[in-house]
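Good morning C.,

I know you're traveling, so I'll keep this short. The sequence:
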Amino acid sequence: MTRHLLVLRALGLGDLLTAVPALRALRRAHPGHTLVLAAPAGLAPAAAATGTVDRLLPAEAPGRAVPGPLAWSGRAPDVAVDLHGNGPPSHLLLEALRPARLYAYAHPGTPHLPGPPWHEDEHERLRWCRLLRWYGIPADPGDLHLPRPDTASPAPGATVLHPGADAAARRWPADRFATVARALHHDGHHVVLTAGAGEGPLAHRIARSAGLPPGRVLGGGTEGLPFQALAALVAQARAVICGDTGIAHLATALNTCSVVLFGPVAPRLWGPPPSPRHRVLWHPGPGESARPGDAHGTRPDPRLLRITADEVLDAVTRLPAGPPAHSLVLGSTCRPQRSPSATEGTP
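The tokens, ready to paste straight into the viewer:
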């Protein structure tokens, strides 16, 4: 009889990648279980790249809300894990499936569920590893790297600029990206811009302003650059320059040099681990907390606007030369398995 481990993480690409250490810990602790990840269908290729997920159960909601009832049928999960958030909505969503065990943070709204206390000021990778350790599962927040793709990059050795973000609060001004792109191009970098779904016009406007040909923009359209192509691009890039968004976490996961621009949320909560390969820029005001702004706000955060183009260019010059230290091939970790299908729902 098949045993199932259901993990709820119905968020974005960056959220999935920060949960990789926890997913790997769960995979090791439950080697005989089928690991089902409840997440947006579009994340199926990225979930496959982690080497941990057997099946993807499509689930999503606007913003960072908890999705509606999960399309689960048949025997209840043996284990359900709430890696989505902290509170009754996600707890009760999983509890409704009547799992034999449920791992979640404690919350006064669900006092019948045990769990460790939630710490607001905690890095996302550490948060979920701490949850699992409380339940007796060893978890290493440093176990975050993805194996390198074995597919060719659409622009080997490029310096990648990603100007988009899913909220204006984390979107550095286009004219400053254009200034950086123009200067790097002049200095001999092969500059390309990536565009997510609907971000093509922004990226092309920056490319024109920087004097780059239209072919230097990759992605855009209704779906953006496919994950395999994006992963290959980032893995073989000279560097990635972006805001606090999914591609920043992809650069971290692939150990590619990066310069990441932070605004409403501190890098100590969502940034890369300390490494010469990653530079973070952030300018909070005196005494400000780790979350001084609205990460989903409709205007660029003031702290993000304090970052200048010259700072970004200087940070690029301080990045080490050479490829990442590791050279794994995509799909080689954990155990052999097929790619999780986004069309599969229940066991």
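Safe travels,
E.
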